[in-house]
Structure formats: structure tokens, C-alpha cells
Design a protein that fits this description.
single chain; mainly alpha
């Protein structure tokens, strides 16, 4: 195994921290825009902007950088992470709060680890399985608020369920992207995900006659989410995966929840309740334990 030098490791940690801050801003910046914009159209515009953000980063990259045998991998990543996941995420965000969304985004970490256990045959000691239960308990608390009546009929809860499903799809994307990042230039991979996913979503939205619906006042939020929250953040995330590995990257990435709650409280004036504090404590404890259990997965290239 190749040992990374100290500079490369520092860059990996810095990339993961900055990525967490940027991702934490997504739900807060998106919430006001989604009041007037269809989630599918919004997702399309966000991913097209994400593809645009990688253009300056890939100007030295020659060619497509994708071998014929890697195209099925690229298309699977795009379908899960750039089409299905954002469609469900932004649809769910319409019917839930930005603060709950920030909390539920932590389930992406646990799903990533679970998929790694299933598909890469990773092993966990009993403490690792306890960690899984802690995070899933936190997800359950924030989804239900421990109120069990009419859960399926509550639009807010339905929104939370869609957020959780989108996190599972992004977790699948993470595992596949980990492989792809060792085969394809990172900036080029960001371009493919954004351009293909955004184009498919835009074509579908236009086919069913969904209007764009973005007002001039909402353009700054759209640019922030597309160019920075998704585009730059994804670039940083993939670089972090390559430099410090999946486990450490996901541990730092999970702190995006804290930033998300702070953004929602500061800019949207959403209250952080006792159940949310309990949920985040359980989820972060579980994520810490499971990342202590994990090992960097060996990637087949």
C-alpha cells in the first residue's frame, strides 16, 4: 500500500472539512427557492451548474479519461447520485425542515458503511454493530419525533422518508465513486455526473412541462447550491476519498450536520429541539464508533 505524504494528508483533511461546511449549506440555501420551484427542475439546474463548476478545474485534463469498460460504472454513479437521489432529496425537502434534513443527512454515512459491509465484505466487531444501531436510532427519532400516530399520513414525515432514501442512493454513489476516483480524473468525473444527470432531469422536467420558476432574487441561492454546494463540494469530497480514505472522509463529512443546523437556525430561524439534540448526539456517537471500526477499503482498478 502506498503511504501518502504529510502534505497530501493535510490536503485530504482540509478538503473534507471544507466539503462538510459547503454541504451543510445546501438544505438552508435550497429551502427558500423550493417554495416556488419544482424539485425536478431545481435538481436539473443544480447539477448542470455543478458540471460547470468543474470546467476551470479540468482545463489541463486531455480527453474523456474514461475507458470503455468504465462507462457502466459512470452511468451507474450518475443514475444513483445525480438523477434519483437529488430528485428525492429536493422533493423531500419541500415537506420537511432544513434542520431535520441536515440531521437526516448523517444517515448517508451509515448507509455508506453498510453497503461497504455487503459489497466489499468488510467486518465489524460488536462495537461496530452497536454504532450502526445508534445511528439508525437517531434517524428514527428525528423522523418520528417519537410520535407514532399517523406517521405515514404526515407530509413532514413523508418528506423525511424521501430524504433517507436519497441518502441511501448517495451512499451507493459514494461506494461506486470511490472506485471511479482511482480510474478517472476527479474533475472529469464531476463533469460527467453533473452534465449527464442534469441533462436527464432537465429533459424530463421539460417533457412534462414543468416551468423553470426561478426568480431573480433566488438566483444567488441557486448558484451557491449548484456551483459550490454540489460542484466544488463533490470535487473536494472525491479528492478527500483518494487522500485519506473512505472512513476518515465520512467521519469528517458527517460534521456537515452541525453546520447544517447552524445555518438553518441562523438564516431560516428554525428552532433546534430536544429530540434533534438527542438524535444528533446518537448519530455522531454512532458514526464515531463505526469509523473507528472501519478500514480503508482496497479499491480494485
Amino acid at each position: 500500500m502506498v503511504q501518502l505524504d504529510a502534505k497530501s494528508t493535510r490536503i485530504g483533511y482540509a478538503s473534507a472539512i471544507l466539503c462538510a461546511v459547503l454541504v451543510g449549506s445546501i438544505s438552508t440555501a435550497s429551502k427558500p427557492v423550493l417554495a416556488n420551484t419544482n424539485p425536478l427542475m431545481y435538481g436539473a439546474l443544480v447539477y448542470l451548474l455543478a458540471a460547470l463548476s468543474s470546467v476551470p478545474l479540468s482545463y489541463k485534463v486531455k480527453g474523456l479519461q474514461v475507458r470503455p469498460r468504465d462507462w457502466p460504472l459512470v452511468l451507474a454513479i450518475t443514475a444513483s447520485g445525480s438523477i434519483l437521489a437529488p430528485s428525492l432529496f429536493f422533493t423531500g425537502l419541500v415537506d420537511t425542515t432544513a434542520s431535520d434534513t441536515a440531521l437526516l443527512s448523517n444517515s448517508e454515512t451509515i448507509f455508506t458503511v453498510l453497503f461497504a459491509l455487503v459489497f466489499f465484505k468488510e467486518k465489524l466487531r460488536p462495537r461496530g454493530y452497536l454504532a450502526v444501531m445508534l445511528v439508525l436510532t437517531g434517524v428514527f427519532i428525528v423522523t418520528t419525533n417519537l410520535q407514532f400516530s399517523n406517521i405515514l399520513l404526515d407530509l413532514k414525515k413523508q418528506g423525511n422518508i424521501l430524504i433517507i432514501i436519497s441518502m441511501a442512493l448517495w451512499a451507493l454513489d459514494n461506494n461506486l465513486s470511490k472506485i471511479a476516483a482511482h480510474r478517472i480524473d476527479v474533475s472529469r468525473l464531476v463533469q460527467f455526473k453533473g452534465l449527464i444527470g442534469g441533462t436527464v432531469l432537465l429533459a424530463f422536467a421539460l417533457a412534462i412541462r414543468i416551468p423553470i420558476g426561478i426568480t431573480p432574487l433566488e438566483i444567488p441561492n441557486l448558484l451557491l447550491v449548484g456551483l459550490v454546494g454540489f460542484g466544488i463540494a463533490l470535487y473536494l469530497f472525491l479528492h478527500s476519498l483518494r487522500r485519506i480514505g473512505t472512513v476518515k472522509t465520512m467521519l469528517i463529512y458527517s460534521t456537515g450536520t452541525v453546520f447544517g443546523l447552524l445555518f438553518a437556525s441562523t438564516f431560516l430561524h428554525e428552532k433546534i429541539g430536544g429530540y434533534q439534540v438527542l438524535a444528533i448526539a446518537l448519530m455522531l456517537t454512532g458514526i464515531y464508533l463505526v469509523t473507528k471500526e472501519g478500514k480503508v477499503l482496497k479499491v480494485q482498478t
